[in-house]
Design a protein that fits this description.
Blueprint: E1 18-22, H1 27-37, E2 42-47, E3 61-65, H2 70-80, E4 84-88, H3 93-97, H4 102-105, H5 110-122, H6 128-141, E5 145-146, E6 161-162, H7 170-188, E7 194-198, E8 201-205, H8 211-221, E9 227-231, E10 245-246, H9 248-256, E11 259-265, E12 270-271, H10 274-284, E13 287-291
Parallel strand pairs: 1-2, 1-4, 2-3, 4-5, 9-11, 10-12, 11-13
Antiparallel strand pairs: 6-13, 7-8, 7-9
Helix pairs in contact: 8-9, 9-10
Length: 300
């Protein structure tokens, strides 16, 4: 059953300060830049051993916080009078799993433990969207509302139509049109966010391994080049954090494993460093298309 759509609060007007709970990768950097350009002071909380070292310089205030220490998040925002925040960035689970000090570094504080216990009594769902909901509800109880994470970066979202100078081939267009209804169903069932296809054959469906590792798998299965990757957002996805993201490394990995076309759900997928991403795609001969649900490929 699709999850209900979450109604998110409107962002406050500038120069209201906005909190930024940051994991790893480039996305927190461009979100911080977008908030600054809009006139918002940025009060950053960087998840320890996860965030980019360049992030603190973009924030009016910054604090390194533990991943499972929500009490410290709330205390930091409360002292600063922060009532709205954005949560973005990756959490490197492999780094946590292989950390010899993980039993000490990742002990939850009392607030986190109590909130998790409440959430698990209500539902034993441990998927990413359920964890996000648990975090958002606990922050909301403490007076901090999570905002739509795409608000500061509207120019980084996939747009409808062909975004590269490189045009998709007729076969690639046909593959996108064929597989898009399948992707919609996979998203509805909350299996994954991407499918690889070539000549009307589904090569792989993304699951827990993520898009990059799925592309590695496709490269092992399909020795011919020219396959297409389609990626979209989960049904009823929560824009407070659960927003599909692609970037320069996506294009590099796609090309390295034989992919030559990338189709994205228009308005639903973040393209990190979009201008550089499109330039690299053209240089490598990869076409990028933005697909609107229900739109025929012939009109793209």
């Amino acid at each position: 059953m699709p999850r209900p759509i979450t109604i998110l609060p409107d962002p406050p007007p500038p120069p209201t300060g906005i909190g930024l709970i940051a994991g790893g990768g480039r996305l927190p950097i461009i979100v911080a830049q977008g908030l600054r350009e809009a006139g918002h002071p940025v009060h950053g909380l960087g998840l320890s051993r996860q965030y980019d070292p360049a992030l603190p310089a973009l924030c009016s205030t910054f604090r390194d916080v533990g991943l499972l220490r929500m009490g410290s998040w709330v205390s930091a925002f409360s002292r600063l009078g922060v009532r709205h925040a954005i949560m973005v960035g990756k959490v490197d689970k492999a780094r946590i799993m292989h950390d010899p000090w993980k039993l000490f570094r990742y002990v939850p504080d009392l607030r986190t433990f109590r909130a998790w216990y409440r959430s698990q009594r209500a539902s034993r769902d441990k998927r990413s969207h359920a964890v996000l909901t648990f975090v958002a509800e606990e922050l909301d109880r403490s007076g901090v509302q999570l905002l739509d994470s795409t608000i500061p970066i509207p120019d980084q979202l996939a747009s409808a139509g062909v975004m590269t100078s490189r045009q998709p081939t007729p076969a690639q267009r046909a593959d996108v049109e064929f597989v898009w209804p399948l992707l919609t169903e996979v998203l509805r069932m909350d299996i994954g966010q991407a499918i690889a296809v070539r000549d009307g054959d589904v090569i792989a469906v993304e699951a827990v391994e993520g898009t990059d590792r799925m592309m590695e798998r496709v490269g092992q299965i399909c020795k011919a080049t020219g396959w297409t990757l389609v990626k979209g957002a989960r049904a009823g996805h929560d824009r407070r954090s659960d927003v599909p993201t692609v970037g320069i490394n996506t294009i590099r990995n796609l090309h390295a494993h034989g992919g030559r076309c990338l189709a994205l759900a228009a308005g639903d997928v973040i393209m990190v460093d979009r201008p550089e991403m499109l330039e690299l795609a053209d240089r490598l001969g990869v076409a990028i298309i933005g697909v609107t649900p229900g739109q025929a490929m012939s009109r793209l």
